[in-house]
Write a structure and sequence with these properties.
- By secondary structure, the protein is an alpha/beta fold.
- Helices cover about 40% and strands about 15% of the residues.
- It has twelve helices and 13 strands.
- Helix 2 runs antiparallel to helix 9, helix 4 runs parallel beside helix 5 and helix 10 runs parallel beside helix 12.
- The chain starts with 8 loop residues before the first helix and ends with a helix.
C-alpha cells in the first residue's frame, strides 16, 4: 500500500534499520510536553475503563480555552477522523476544494460518492488564494474545504478574503469547513480565524488538532468547532462511540495547561523559519511559501527525496498533491542543529548533479 502522507518513520526503520531525522511531518520540534507525558502516565490507572464517549471534561476545558460553548465542540481521533465523520454525516453531492491541499478532504469526499471540484492554485500567483475563488462559489457546492494556513504551501488566506468567502457561503447556504490545525503556531492566531463566527446554526465548521503543536501525533486527538448542533450529533452517530481513548483525553486536558510550552514553540519557529528559508535558498532550492512551522520549496535535483533518505533525512515529496510535480517538497522547521543537518544534506544531495 502506497502511503499518501509524510511521517512514515516505521517504513524508514524497516528499510534502513535506523532512526531518521524526520522533516516530513510538521510536528513541534520541542517534543511531547512533560505535563502531557505525565498526564498520559497518570491516566494509565483508568485504562481498564471505557473512555467517556462524550469527552465531557475535555470539551469543557477546550470551551474555556477557546471561549466557545462545549455544545459547539466535538472531539475525535485526530482531525482526520472528524473530516470523515463530517462527510459521512453531511453526505454532500458536490464539494469544492483547493489544489494543492491536504489530501484527506478529497479522500473523504470521494469515499462517500461526492463529486469534487478542484480550484487550482497556481505557481504564477505563489499558490495563494485570490478573490477569484469567490467566482467558484457561484456554482453553489454543498461544501467547501479550505486549509488555513494551507498544507503543503504554508500560505495564509488574507483575513479580508476569508471573511468575504465566509459571507458568501453563509448567504448561499454552503457549509464552509476551515482547517485551522496549524494556526496555533502563529504568534497572533486570532487575526486569522473565523472562530467568532461559530454561532448557533451557522454553516461553518473549524478543524483543530493537538497533533502538531503539542507533538502528539501518536496519541491522536483533534476537535472541531461548529454551531450546527444537529450536524455535530450526526457526526457523533456515524463513528464508533469510543473514538477518543482515556489516554488521549487526559493528554488533551494536560496540553491545554501548557501555555509556556506554546510560547516556546512559537518563539523557536519564529526564529528558525526565516533562518532556514535563507539557508535553503543559498543551498540551491527555491522556497515559495511558509508562514508557520514548515516550508514549501522546489528543487532541480532529480529524486531529491530519495537521496535525502539515503542520507538519513526524510522530507515530504509533494508529487502526489494534485497540481504539483516531482520537484516540489515540504520540510518542517525544527531546531537549529537539525535544520543545519537538513541544509547540509540538501547541499550534499545536489553535489552529484552539478
Amino acid at each position: 500500500m502506497k502511503l499518501i502522507h509524510g511521517g512514515d518513520v516505521e517504513g524508514f526503520r524497516e528499510e534502513f534499520g535506523r532512526e531518521p531525522l524526520d522533516f516530513s511531518a510538521n510536528i513541534s520540534p520541542l517534543g511531547l510536553p512533560e505535563g502531557v507525558r505525565q498526564g498520559v502516565i497518570d491516566s494509565l490507572s483508568q485504562a481498564t475503563q471505557y473512555p467517556d464517549p462524550l469527552c465531557r471534561k475535555l470539551r469543557r476545558a477546550i470551551g474555556e480555552k477557546e471561549g466557545i460553548a462545549p455544545e459547539y465542540i466535538q472531539c475525535g481521533n485526530g482531525a482526520a477522523d472528524l473530516i470523515f465523520r463530517l462527510v459521512l454525516a453531511k453526505r454532500p453531492r458536490r464539494a469544492l476544494v483547493t489544489a494543492p491541499t491536504f489530501a484527506e478532504y478529497e479522500q473523504a469526499l470521494t469515499s462517500f460518492g461526492c463529486e469534487v471540484d478542484r480550484y487550482l492554485l497556481t505557481k504564477e500567483e505563489g499558490f495563494a488564494l485570490t478573490p477569484r475563488f469567490l467566482e467558484a462559489l457561484e456554482e453553489k457546492p454543498d461544501m467547501v474545504f479550505l486549509c488555513n494556513p494551507n498544507n503543503p504551501t504554508g500560505n495564509l488566506i488574507a483575513p479580508s478574503l476569508l471573511r468575504q468567502i465566509w459571507e458568501k457561503c453563509r448567504e448561499k447556504g454552503i457549509l464552509l469547513v476551515v482547517d485551522e490545525c496549524f494556526l496555533s503556531f502563529l504568534p497572533r492566531p486570532w487575526e486569522h480565524t473565523l472562530k467568532k463566527e461559530v454561532q448557533e446554526g451557522a454553516p461553518l465548521l473549524l478543524l483543530r488538532a493537538f497533533t502538531k503543536l503539542y507533538a502528539m501525533a501518536g496519541i491522536r486527538l483533534g476537535y472541531c468547532l461548529c454551531g450546527d448542533r444537529q450536524l455535530l450529533a450526526r457526526m457523533a452517530g456515524v463513528g464508533q462511540p469510543w473514538g477518543v481513548s482515556v489516554l488521549a483525553q487526559q493528554a488533551g486536558l494536560a496540553a491545554l495547561r501548557e501555555d509556556r510550552y506554546v510560547e516556546n514553540v512559537r518563539a523557536l519557529i519564529g526564529q528558525e523559519r526565516p533562518w532556514l528559508w535563507q539557508q535553503l535558498e543559498q543551498a540551491g532550492v527555491h522556497v515559495v511559501g511558509g508562514s508557520v512551522n514548515y516550508l514549501f520549496f522546489r528543487s532541480d535535483v532529480p529524486q531529491l527525496g530519495e537521496k535525502m533518505r539515503q542520507l538519513g533525512v526524510m522530507i515530504r515529496s509533494c508529487a502526489n498533491y494534485p497540481g504539483l510535480s516531482e520537484d516540489w517538497y515540504r520540510a518542517a522547521v525544527r531546531t537549529r542543529e537539525e535544520n543545519q543537518r537538513l541544509v547540509e544534506c540538501i547541499r550534499q544531495a545536489g553535489e552529484g548533479d552539478r
